[in-house]
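re the bet — no i am not wrong, look at it urself. input seq straight from the record:
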Amino acid sequence: MTTMSSQLNGLLDVETVSKDFPILARTVRGGNKLVYLDSGATSQKPNQVLDAERGFYTRCNAAVHRGAHLLAEEATDAYESARLTIAHFLGAVPRELVFTKNATEAINLVAYAFSNATAKSAHGRALPDGADRFILAPGDEIVVTQMEHHANLVPWQEVCDKTGAVLRWLTVNDEGRLDLDDPEHGLESVITERTRVVALTHQSNVLGTITPVERIAQAAHAVGAIVVLDSCQSVPHMPVDVSSLGVDFVAFSGHKMLGPSGIGVLWGRYELLESMPPFLSGGSMIETVHIDSSTFAAPPQRFEAGVPMAAQAIGLGAAVDYLNALRSVDGSKHGMAAVSAHEHALTTYALERLTEIQGVRVIGPQEAHDRGSAVSFVVDGIHAHDVGQVLDEMGVEVRVGHHCAWPLHRRFGVAATTRATFYVYNGPSDVDALAEAIVAAQKFFKVI
């Protein structure tokens, strides 16, 4: 048995943090303590976020950017204040931040800029200045990676189908990292003069792998391509400064970072946002409307049609405040640096515990360097769904299946994996509970 758990106690004070999350006080499945290890799918919410969202409805509920009365003014101020808070969290400025309902919508917003610009151009319709960079021709290429979540794969397949562009991809090696030097499927072979878009994950939701974003972005920009980064698994778990990443768009979801469901964020370089045609159209995103034509507002309002999700945005702002306020027990780290250090140590411990169990195979990097806290594994002789069922009966909540990354699972020759993902309210005892439940599953199915 490893002694790593004793070394984790000096990071985040998990016992204190957990008290902020009311759901963690409940029991499940016959009185078992809830061990929540599915934050990669959706995180739990602290009281501070729940109070902020409820506070909007009880104090200033109104449609933002519309009414001239007091409640509407207060609602608008609260909504835009949340945008400012989140922008600062990312090293951005507020006008670069578009609120969406989730990261999937944020990525689709960018994808539709290409198909919409291409369609309008084909019919000679007016486009914003600079929109030619979003016009695709048959044979142009869009590059993804083999480890993408479906949300950053299927939209680009659709763009290719609509425009005649060609989809290409960077492959994953046996370790679970992008094989950028592969002679046939590496960076120099896949990113070419025909490349117009490179869309990739910052951190794999299956493997935990942190991708070399800067190297890929440099190669993409060298041929004039636009870089779209899925940061759903990075923004909640590590410091992310969009101004230094070298990418053009960043998408993430609030519900994975202690915030409410129904709120996502697209960050984009403002000169690109200005040159994009809208994704959704209707009220709030317009400048002028005539019976036969309309002009559109400047970003970010251009991409926020209809009454926006004000309460959820305010809740996400409160989640950012909560993450920023976290401190390591020894005081050496704060905010996202403390979150990242805590998860790194917890992941190291989890990899040690799981690899000690005979018949368990971790899919992805076996060491914690350049790796996040998603740990996916298979148990010999037991289907992932059966593993998950036994764990659930013991109160250990994990994710099972292909995790919306079917091509990646095919790459590793497995139909499904069991995935544990850790966050600020998890400690070494949760890793121990996971390991003990896996052994219990092996005993139940008589594979040991």
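see?? The domain at 54-319 is CATH 3.40.640.10 (Aspartate Aminotransferase; domain 2). told u. also The longest helix spans residues 70-90. so pay up
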